[in-house]
Amino acid sequence: MGLSIKKLSCLLIPAAVIILPACSSDDGGGSTGNATLSVDNAQSLAIAGTEGVKQAVNNDSVSPFAKTDTDSPLESHTIGLARQLTQETQLAEIPDFCESGSVDQSYTESSGTITYNSCDIGGVIFNGTASITSSTAGSITTFSITYSSFTVSYDDVTESVDLSITCTNDSDAGTISCTYNSSAPGIDGRIYSVSNSVVSGDNYSGYTISATVTDPDNGNITITTSSPVSLTCSNGQPVSGAITVSDGTNSMVVTYIDCNSYSIDFDGSTTTYNW
Question: Would you say the pTM of this structure is higher than 0.90?
Answer without folding.
Answer: no
